[in-house]
Design brief:
With about 900 residues, the protein is mainly alpha-helical. Among the domains are: about 80 residues, no CATH class; about 120 residues, Tetratricopeptide repeat domain (Serine Threonine Protein Phosphatase 5, Tetratricopeptide repeat), CATH 1.25.40. Helix content is about 75%, strand content about 0%. It has 41 helices and no strands. The radius of gyration is 54 Å and the shape is elongated. It starts with 10 loop residues before the first helix and ends in a 9-residue tail after the last helix. Keywords: Meiosis. InterPro entries: Spo22/ZIP4/TEX11 (IPR013940), TEX11 (IPR042861), TPR-like_helical_dom_sf (IPR011990). One of its GO terms (cellular component) is central element. Pfam families: SPO22 (PF08631).
Length: about 900
Amino acid sequence: MDGIDFRFMDFKEIVENLTITDNSPSIPEVIDRLFKDIENINRESMAEIEDAQIEEMAVNLWNWAVTRRIGLFMSEEQTVKLCHVACKLVCMCEVSVASEQALRRQILMNMRTGKGWVDVGNALIADEFFQAAMAGLEQLYVKLVQRSYSEDHLIMQKTAVENDLFKVLSYQAESAVAQGDFQRASTCALRCKDMLMRLPKMTGYLHVLCYNFGVETHKHNKYQESSFWLSQSYDIGKMDMNSVGPEMLAKVLRLLATAYLDWDDREYYEKALSAIILANKAHLNPAGLFLKMRILLKGETPNEELLEAVMEILHFDMPLDFCLNIVKLLMDHERESVGFYFLKTICEHFKSSENIGKAVLFHIDMLLQRKEELLAKEKIEEIIVGHQTGSQLTTELVGWLQNILWNKAARSFEVQNYADALQWYYYSLTFYGFGQLDLDLAKLQRNMASCYLHLKQLDKAKEAVMEAERWDPTNVFTQFYMFKIAVLESNSDRALQAITTLESLLTAKKPEDNDLLEDRGSHTMLLNLAAQFALENGQAIPAGKALEYLAQHSEDPQQVLTALKCLFRLVLPQVNQTPGSENKKKEMGRLLACLNTALLTLAQAFDGESSTLDSRANEAHWFRKIAWNLAVQSDKDPVTMREFFMLSYELSQFCPSDQVILIAQKTCLLMAAAVDLEQGRKAATTFEQTKLLNRALEQTQKCKDIWNLLKQTGDFSQDPCETLLLLYEFEVKAKMKDPSLDSFLESVWELPHLESKTFETIALLALETPAYYPSIALKALKKALLLHKKKESIDVLKYSKCMHILINLSVPDGTSSAELCPMEEVWGYFEDVLSLISHTEGYPEIEILWLMTKSWNTGILMFNRSKYVSAEKWCGLALRFLHHLGSLKGNYETQMNALYSELMEVLDKKKGSLFNEE
C-alpha cells in the first residue's frame, strides 16, 4: 500500500486507508493533516455516517495507532495525535443512548489520550480529555445506579468507576504540576489520598507519584511545594509498609531534609534535622549520615555536638573514603579543630588497613591547605623514611602525593618564594627511584631549573636543564630553558641553536606536547617569552631570531607586526656594520622575507572598520619607510634594491593616496623599472630578457597612472618622471620589436616639451642590441640638434657630441655603399658645424680634428668612386676645418697641404674624366 496518495482524499477516506496501510513515507504528513482537520469536524459535518460506523472508524484508528507505533517508528507525539483524533470521533456519537461498553470505551480513550498529551509535554490539551473522562465517569455512575444490579455487583461496578476516577485525578494532578498549578495539583492529590482507604492497592502508585512531584519541584527550586509533596509521599508510604519499604521511605525523608535545608531559612533547620534523623532510623545510609552532618554544620552546631556526631559515624563502621569526605566537609565549613581531631581518630581507627596511606596523605593535604607546613613536612618526611625502608605507598598514592607536593610548590612559585618551592620539589624528587626516570621527572627538573634561575643560581639551573634534556630532549620547555640559560651566559650560538630547535618542535605535526601546548597561541607565547627574555638580557641576536619565528607563526596580526617592528629596530643597526658583502646580502634577504610577512599580514588581517583601517595605514607607513631605506642602502645590489622598492610600493597601497604617498609610489616604480631594464640588457637568454622587459613595462604602466593622479595635486613641471617613462617604454618596445613602436613614436615626435637630451637618449637606445633602428636614431638626433640651435646659448660640447653621432651614423667609417642620407644633406651638417665654429668659441678641438679627418676621408672615397668634383669639394672642406684647429694645427697643416696639392695635380690630369661624374 506504499503507493497510496492521500492528498486528494476526504477525512473519512484518509482514516480508512491509513488503517490498512503498513508503511508509507507520507504517514507523518497524513497524521498532521488529520490532527488539523479534526478541529473543524463535528457530528453535523458527518451526518451521512451512522454512529456505529464512526465508532468503528475511531476504534480502528485507535488500534492502528497503538499497534503500529513501534513498527513504523512513530514518535510519541504522532501516536497521541492519532489517539486524539480517534477519541474526538468516538465522542461525537450520542452519549445518552450509548451502551455502558461504549461509555467505558470513551472514558478509557479520554484518559489515555490525556495521559499521552501530559507525557509529550502538552498539559493544556490533556486537561480537555481529563474533563471529558470525568464527565463520562459521572454518566456511567448514574447508569450503574439506575440499573437493577445486585448489591454485590453494584459495589464491584462502583469500585471499578472509583478506580478510574482515582487515575483521572492522579493524571490531573500530574498535568497541574506540569503547568505549575500547585493548588489544583494538591487538591487532586489529596482527593486521591482520601480514596486510598477504599483503594489500598493504589498506595504505592500515589506514594511514588508524590515523590516524583517532589523531585520535579525541587529541581525548580520550589522548596515549599517540594516539601509538601515529599511529606505527602512519606505519609502515604507509611500507610502500606508492605508495598513501600524502609529504604524508599528513607530516600523520601532525605530529599525532604534536603528541601528544608535548601530553603535556607532558620525555621526549617529543625524540620530538616528531624527529617534526616527519621530517615537514618528508617534505613541507615552513608548519604543520610553525610546529609545530617551538612544540616548540623548549617545550623552552627557547637563543636561538642559535632564531635559526637562524627564519632557516631565511626561507630557505624563507615568506610574510610566516607570518613575522609566528612573531614573535608568539616574543613570546608571551617571546623578545623573537629576535622583534625576526627582525622587523627580515623588514622588510628584504620591504622591496620591497607588504605591507611590515603588517610595520611589526606591529612597532609589538609595541613597544607591550612598553612600548617611544619606539621605537613614532618608527615612527609615520615613517609619518605617509610618509603626508603620498605613501607612504600602504592603507585596510585605516590601519584596523589606528587600532585600535593607539586601544587604546593606551584603556590610558592606564584608568590615568588622560589626557595620554598624548591624544597617541595626536592621532596618530590625523593620518590623517583634509581633508574626510574620518566617524562614527569624531566618536568620536575625543568621546574627546579626555573626556581634556580629566579634565585640567580645559574650553575644549578644548567645542571637541572641538562638532566631534563637527557630524558626529554624533544620537549619545548626543555629547549626554552636551555635558551634562557644560553642567553644568561651570553652564548649567542647556543641560544640560536636552542631557539631553532624550539621552533622546529613547535611546528612539527605532532609536537611533544605538554598541557600548555594544545593550541597555536601557546606556541607563539613561548616564542614571545623567549624574545622578551633575550631583549631584557641584552642579547640582540637570539632576540632577533625569536622575533623572526614569532612573526612567522603567530596568528595575531598585531603581534606579528609588533614583533617585526621590534626585529627591524634590532637588526637595522647591525646590517650597516655587517662585514663582508655575503653576510650583508644574507641579512638583506632575511629582512626582505620579514617585510613580505608584514605585507601579507596587512593584506589579510584587517576588516573594514575605520579604526582598524587607520591602524593598518599607520603600520603600512612605518614598514614602507623601512623598505625604502633598505632599498637605498642596497645600491650595490640592484636586484635586492628593486625588491625593496617594490615592497615599499606595495606597502604604500595600504596608505591614503595623498601627494607624499603618490610621489613615493612613483619613485619606487621608476626605480624598479630601471633595474629591470638594466638587468634585461645583461640577460643571458632571450627568455629571461623578455621576462624582465615585460615586468619593466608593467611597472611603467602603473607609474603612468600614478603620475596622472600626481599631476592633479600640484606643479610638477620640473619632474623628469614623464620623460623617464617615455624612455623606458621606448626601450622596452624597441628591444622587444613591438609592432606598435612606430605609432608610439608618432606621438613622441609631436611632444613640445622634450629636451635635446631626451632625443639623444632615444637615438642611443635605438642603436642598442638587440634593437637596431638607425632611421629612428637619425630622426631623434636631428630633433636634438634643432633644439640645441634654438637655445640662446648653444652648449657646444653637447652639440659636438650629438653632431658626431649624427655624422658617424650618416657616413659610417668604411662605408662603400649608399649612405643612409644623401651626401648633400651630410654636407649641410658639416657646413652647420663650420658656421658654429666660426661664430662660437669652445668647440672641442678633438671634434674639429675628427670632422677634418671625416671630410678628408669622404673626399678620398669620392675620388675612388671617380667623383672628382665631389672629391675636390670634400677635401677642400677638410682644409677649412684645418684652419680652425688650434694647437694641433701645426701637426697636420704641412701634411694636409701637401696631400691636397698632390690630389689637385691628379685631378688636373683627369679633367677629361670630370664629366663622367654623375
